[in-house]
Amino acid sequence: MAYLEISDNSLTGFEQPPVFIAWVQLVILDLTYNRLEGQLSIPPASTEEYQISNNKLSGEISPFFCNLSSLRLLDLSNNLLTGKLPQCFENFRNTLRVLNMSNNQFHGSIPQMCANGSNVRMIDLSHNQFQGRLPQMLANCMMLQVLNLGNNRFSDVFPSCFTGKLPSEFFKNLNAMRVKDAELESLDLSNNKLSGQIPPQLAQLTFLEVFEVSHNHLTGPIPQMNQLSTFDVGSYEGNLGLCGNPLPRKCESSVPPSGLEEEQISKSTLEFHWMTVVPGYDSLGVVTEVVFYSSSQWLLCGKFELCLFGSESPLCHNDDSIALLEFKNSFIIDKLLLEILLHIPEFNPGEENRDCCSWDGVACDTYTGCVVALDLSSSFLHGSINSTSTFFNFKGLTLLIMISTSLKSLLQWGLRIASRVFMLDLSSSFLHGSINSTSTLFNLSQLQRLNLADNDFNFSHIPSAMGHLSRLTYLNLSHSSFYGQVPFEISGLSNLSFPDLSYNDLELKSPNLSRLVRNLINLKQLHLTYVGVSSTVPSFLANFSSLTSLLLSDCGLQGEFPNGIFQLPNLQVLNLRNNPRLSGYLPEFHSNSSFEVLLLHNTSFSRKIPSSIENLHFLLQLDFGACRFSGLVPSSLRKLTRLTSLDLSGNNFEGQIPSFIQNLTNVTYLSLQDNELSGTLYFDMFLGLKNLESLLLGRNKLSILVQTSNMNATVPRFRSLDLASCNLTEFPYFLRYQDRLEWLVLHGNKIHGQIPKWIWNLSIQTMANVDVSDNYLTGFEQTPVFIAWVHLISLDHSCNKLKGQLPIPPPSTIEYHVSNNKLSGQISPFFCNLSSLLVLDLSNNQLTGKLPKCLENFRNTLLVLNMSNNHFRGSIPQMCANGSNVRMIDLSHNQFQGSLPQMLANCMTLEVLNLGNNRFNDVFPSWLGTLPNLRLLILRSNNLHGVIRELSYPGFFSLHVFDLSNNSFAGKLSSEFLKNLEAMRFKDPANSSYLVANFSFDVKAVTWSNEFAYSITITNKGMVMLYEKVQEVFAVIDLSSNRFEGSIPESLGILQGLHVLNLSNNILTGKIPSTLGNITELESLDLSNNKLSGQIPQQLAQLTFLSVFKVAHNHLTGPIPQLNQLSTFDVSSYEGNNGLCGNPLPKKCESSVPPSGFEDEQDAESALEFYWITIVPAYVSGLVIGVVIGQIYATKKHDWFVKTFGQWKQKRRRRKMQRFPWRY
User: Looking at the domain that runs over 708-825, which CATH code has it been given?
Assistant: First the structure.
């Protein structure tokens, strides 16, 4: 069930009231206009529109309403609902469009529903018992069109209560009301102290339906003309001096007052304009998205005002009127918001209203009556425009606005509209496809402003014909899925002052950035965010004195940034974020600087911050995070008292946190984390920052002391708090009073004991991320069966000493980390509700039982599953299907049994599969070779058996780690199989990174990014080693402790990227292949406990990185080569070979001259040639190291290897978020 409407019936209640509505795919539910009684049912999280107004429902709104993350429309008006509005309504700010809670019994304050980016259009909370002050957050509702807070108990200054004189200047700003006053439908002047007579001119208001002048001091006769003669006693009562119909008091003269002469009427009307409406204007007024109502005539239901104002306007042309009606009737109008909720009447013009110039969204020329402007924005139109549409008949059109329409064929048929159009706004109009250079769009020769933002042009190219629009001053193509090179022709638009090409897949190579902007001499704003510039910033930009905004974040900029740009007198916004190859330093700032926003995050700017930064008096946002600045935090920052956001994180600042921070009272976001700041810091410093919402101090060298007494009255209400590695020994006392925290990070401290029970009641409606990992927590004061944070995204309790059952997180959870604890028991079936889960890490605990079958349901979301080192048993659920996104599965060190599940062959994105140390009984899973991204395959220590045969198809070509050790495989090693391992053929690249699962997700319009480092346990250097991180180039083959037989394939020599090769404890025979000397990256070679014969090849001396070499317990003969690394190993590497002689063995060789080790003269000649031609450089390098450093090299080698490829002690993952939702 997706849609249900049973409104306007006589339903009285529910046979069995559903607490939760079970339709999991429900989108729209409409139960309005019934007589329903009882509690408010809770719809599923998929619900977008919930209408249940005009019933008799009672009770409070459940906190489970907080889960309605897709809600666009909520109408609970006209019921008997009580209580407070849940604080979680703040979370709907990015989805909710309409909220109507009027005519109930709600009380308390209004949640903070508006923030930057809020999309709410209507808020009606009238006729309730809300109290306190009007929330100033409403000023952030930039899309708000209707606000009704009437009939409550608010106590505040304007606009809640009016006292004193109401200045006429106030009315002058109400542009949207500047319409013909004759269209006034409602005039209420009652309950004042007005005196004098009722002007006869009011009889001109022929549309007047409501007229109230009661309870004033009016005198004289009531005009008996037009509408004024139709109102009843209630409109006039309470005026002792009034007389005439409909009042019982008769006037002394029976002659009704006549209207004034035409000239006097005109004069009085003009006065009336000033007194009650607004004077007309002779210019074009454009106001979009302002009102839902103005008159009874509607061109398009719910259209907003766009009017040409004048005291006298001619009727529109009949052709234009007919064309508009035909155009309107050719589309479907989505009336859900406009008719059902707001009860807007459908436009149905009669003969009396053929003047299309009076219709909403239409503007006409003052003299000719031709339609010159159309505003169809947010008109909820759906459909297509065909080539014969009357839309193309408006010859006088100069302005067209179509924001948020869905006219799919508009650009397909071309804009065959009048060439006089100077402004065209088609943003957010669901346009898709490509724009051809032949489109008639490019015939609009007068076009000055073009906005095509927020559409989908299907990654097509920007047409070069854009250069034909030579008069363009404004061009916005942002967020529109354009692709490829920015056309050179745009650089020829010399009038262009505002180009915005941001958030596409564009690049600037030819022309490059320099050539693009060189001719744009009128440039005021340049927005190229996410455009692939990949070049330096031209220094001549410092000459563009009119530049006010320069947005070049995420552009791949490089080289040194021109200092002169910082000194442009009008530059207000500079955003260079996320250009790590862009370097530079800050110049001296002039006192006339206009900077309001300065963002350099994640660039390579360095040196110290100059003291002249104090001259940026207007600065609001300063972000120098993740740069290379050093020194002390400059004291000159104390003068930037307007700052609302200060980010100095991820630099090399040292010393103490300066005390002047407490004087930046406007700061809402403060980040000093990841520096070298030190000393003891008293948390009291921040108590005076009442506006502070985000405080990030983690990972410095600080010791923070927090007052343990009652601090609830003074501590700021945080939304994000990072006190990681701050030497805390207990949970800060003030946390228990925080009611809107979203981000809490306390990892790496010394917090001990149990997790207090009050933690679970902390910010229940808002908490999104909690990290208390790497502490000394031992358990729970009160174990929560269900974690109550309804919007939790990430929970990390790993690396503690927690005991007890596994707490069940809410369905919203995306990451759940509880590894390295002592948790026990089974996994609850309630884990099946975690439908958003990306990462589940329960490794290194004492969990038991079988894995729930419902893990199969995570196949489309789960990226990382780590259940290793527990006591799980049974079989593995069918977690992979077509479309599965899982990248890592680690079920090692458990008690799983049976066959290897072939469903794993469907995990096409799988990179790591570790099923080692279980009880699987099967043959080699050759079907895994089809997985294109499989890098790590570990099946060690099971009961696997059989022969590994040659593949009939190319497979395993991405494999870096191949571990089949401690099984029962038999037969010969397949040379052809080994040739498939293409990823092992390549040596270390210059800048190798670690193998991780990178992922990001959007929550509340915020992008969260994180990574999960892959870890492995393998046998290396004779020891079982845990690698918490694995470099991408780390290549391992471990086939040890099986029953392989026959010779070692020569083809192993082509795997030149191998670092570890372990073939020990098999039944291999024959000679050691000399081709192993080609694997020059090899660091560990173990061939021990086989039946190998012959001599040790001299070519193995080429392995200058070798730190482990074992050939013990074979049948080798001859002298041990005394070259390079081979001469540094002890007896244990060679023992058990009766025929071997030479150091370090006690058995000496008969001849003091070491043999060449080659079997015949031909082999010696070719090998020697190979040795001298291709190996000498490596040999010389190795020899120099060996001679100069001697034994130090051998002893240090192990440490270097561990640092490079792994470590004994676990390093913690650190998650990061691109931007906090409250940050900018």
Answer: 3.80.10.10
